[in-house]
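Re: the pair you flagged

First of the two:
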Amino acid sequence: MKKNNLKIKMTLSLVLFIVISLISIYSSQNISSDNIGNIFVKQVIFYIIGIIILLISSYYKDVIIKYNYLSYIGLLFLLALLLFLGVSINGSRCWLFIGPISFQPSEFMKISLIILTANYLSKSSKKKSLKTELIILLKLSIFFLLPAILTFLEPDTGAVIIYYVILISMILYRGINKKWYYIFLITITIISSSITLLYIFKHDLLINILGESLFYRIERILNWSNGSGYQLENSLIAIGSSGLKGFGFNNTPLYFPESSTDFIFTTFSSNFGFLGVLFLIIIIITFDTSILSLCKRKIAIHDKYLLVGIFSMLLYQQVQNISMTIGLLPITGITLPFISYGGSSLLSYMLAAGFIFRICHDNKKYMN
């Protein structure tokens, strides 16, 4: 019965995600650019394809996981191809176009890296000696560094951050020697302090070392707390003025860029106010905690790693996306899972959702 309740919670949450996504995207069309076409119809098509992918990944989970190394290699090739054939949108070459169809390899690379890490950690030694863990960390670092470099060159800093959130979360779940925490903290402190000092006292030197593109991205992060910027200011006004019930469906009175993607939360908040936001947050928490509940049950260790990777990916993106629209975190171009417009991102989440539902179904194999 508990297993069925968990499945019902996740299914209901996913259905509500679909409804919220579609009504928010429909509303965002009033203030979106005319050149992106009918994004509502496109999102409906993406969800239909996504549901098919969910069913396929649920049924063929083990096959997809077994041959993930082929997906990883193929996605690496596509990420490299982007640097030469990718179409530049908003200064980033993140999309490959095949006729009218666009494809963002980094979105699927996140899922491939989760599977790759789960495969490796579930078979690796459980010893916590520094030598054993150094080998594990070095191998995983190589697996992640290859796509991270290619994705960073697009440039897509947000996706790179997600890669490493996944890696760190899954390693921490495995458990590592405490000495690695001290090594990590010291390294991060030295790097961040050096960049900050150079930024404050040696602007020109920092630009020469990192290049203008990387310097600009670091500058955005260091300056995010001043709350400046047309996009953020209008987002704060739209959310703050929406009140308890919002301005109503399909009524977004204030323009702000990326209203259907990065700032879809602002669109929804403007339409439905505090009560709508509270409802959305409850659905997100319900879905996420269901993944954690499933992870605590008697399931294969590989599936536990898989769930931890998916959970960390979703949670980080949810917190980052919502926080950046209200000025709590820097704007990094990260979308809201299952809600924001976008085919590649949505299909990758539905692929992951298929794994979750399959693990929930297989839970009975490990029950007493």
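Second of the two:
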Amino acid sequence: MIQLRNLEKHIDTKAGPLYLLRQINLDIGDGEFLTIMGPSGAGKSTLLSILGLYDHAWDGEFHFLDQAVHKLPVKQRAALNKRHIGFVFQQFHLLDDLTVAENLDIPLSYRDIKKPERQAIVADLLDRFGMVAKKDLFPSQLSGGQQQLVAVARALVAKPALILADEPTGNLHTDQGREIMELFKKLNAQGTAIIQVTHNEAWAAYGHRIIRLRDGWMEK
């Protein structure tokens, strides 16, 4: 699914280039559940942002679903993102002035999908996640765990091949975190590839393998 070759990212400073990622070589297979770990400032979120096709300022080779991303213009990279990638953030990033159902509809509204079909997709997800009774509530009326469930559902609404999760349980208590991780485990068993960043060793163990970053380098 993903191949990275000598991927690097730096920012320019008065003292010269400051490298955030150095010589990352990584292969991620279809349907894999990968965990990325490392101390703060190691480059974890930077790598996830590049994998999600949000960050375009990097060097090296990046292949995603047989597409040479490093050769694509930004517009085509954005199209790949919308078509194949769902993102789950630590801070949920739900729109406070929209209901649960409306938050789920947002990613679909950017596509050429007619409203009745969008409504059917949203209804199916609400049922799948056990949130039908909460469809007309606003994020502020939900618990943290419920908000993250909505965020995961939103990431899934367009049926992505890959879900990227950046500390998805960071703001949840243990039981809520376990519920989210069990959900990821189930989604992965159904064929969705998942790449998560976490500091939690217990949640890291849900992945098929763990890679560790330190000072921008991938540990051997």
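The radius of gyration is 18 Å.

-B.
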